[in-house]
Amino acid sequence: MAESILITGGAGFIGRYVSRALLDRGDHVRVLDSFIEQVHADRGADGLDSEVEVVRGDVRDPDAVRRALKGVDKVVHLAAEVGVGQSMYAIDRYVSVNDHGTAVLFQQLIDQPVKRVVVASSMSVYGEGLYRDADGNLVEDAVRRPRSGPDAPWDPLDSKGRPLVPVPTPEWKRPSLASVYAIGKFVQERLTLTVSPTYGMEGVALRLWNVYGAGQALSNPYTGVLAIFAARLQNGQPPMIFEDGQQRRDFVHVEDAARAFVLALDRPQAAGGVYNIGSGVDRTVQEVAADLATAMGRTGIQPEIAGKTRAGDIRHNIPDITKAREELGYAAQHLDFTADLAELAEWVARQQARDRVSQARNELELRGLVA
Ligand code: UD1
């Protein structure tokens, strides 16, 4: 049966794909979005499906949220500031939008409850992913210490100084909140799972890995690494790789992420659940830089390896997606990374990406947040 779904932050990168997926099956979609400049400089509301009902407003504005919730069956909560690096200096803004914004949403949900709220959480709540030490023991609380010198290893070490090896992280791993952004995502997740059942609603949290695809905000220098690299290459500039480029992530195509949201809205057994959402394949940042340069025909531009860490960054984090598979019926369908990067490159070639990356890096360096 068709439902009425509110997507907060629905004009953003992921929101547009979730909207499309829901419209395609006949749902009514309303979007609450404030169209902030850092994200929407290139297109504003352009390209939003014409059937989407748009409420312009900030998630922190109770009146806007009240209007947006009228007659809604379910909510997808995506409105958030998304830069891990930026969160370490724009602290009040990140806490305000991500933490307080979610509080305002739930305050309004008390008066206008819905059946289910699905929140976009993040793998960043884990901090470092799960590791295994040289003796085969799982290590949940890896942290990386400041490096002692230029030759010191980048990977977290065990108590005997041996490098730990990353393994897929399951949902039961204890959170370790390494950035203001991660703190906010955990708050959003916990508010959703704690408040929803109190008022007869169901809460679900998706811990997303690195989502990529056409439509990512290219001129936002605090967006995901693939969009940043694409904007740099498009402007003939070398991508800047933090650390040594061997840090591992899982890049999940935005259509797969959108499908996960639809499953999380639908599946009865998802109520109260937390799910990792990734592709199931991990890659190093250096590999993806090289693959993207190839896809964009810019192999002549060598990335610059910074040899420095961005404050708040973690070393390795790769997902165990077994629970999403078993309980949501989720499986990534985009598994041909080369083809998906080619599609991304083709889209990027049609865009005007303002390169604000150097400026963003200056902001971080000025504050001693790259070291
Ligand atoms: C990203 C998202 C976060 C999301 C999480 C899970 C951003 C900014 N962060 O965090 O919102 O919740 O995935 O989906 O979108 N890097 C470079 N050069 C750059 C930029 C980044 O080498 O110019 C490196 C980083 O140091 C890091 C890796 O690339 O090691 C990934 O960075 P990023 O794309 O910012 O993602 P996460 O921090 O993994």
TrEMBL record:
A UniProt-annotated Pfam family: Epimerase
Family: Belongs to the NAD(P)-dependent epimerase/dehydratase family.
InterPro entries listed in its UniProt record: Epimerase_deHydtase (IPR001509), NAD(P)-bd_dom_sf (IPR036291)
EC number: 5.1.3.25
Pathway, per record: Bacterial outer membrane biogenesis; LPS O-antigen biosynthesis
Keyword entries, A-Z: Isomerase
Domain of life per record: Bacteria
Membrane-spanning intervals of the chain: none
PANTHER family for this protein: DTDP-D-GLUCOSE 4,6-DEHYDRATASE-RELATED
Stated name of the protein: dTDP-L-rhamnose 4-epimerase
Domain NAD-dependent epimerase/dehydratase, residue spans: 5-131, 178-278
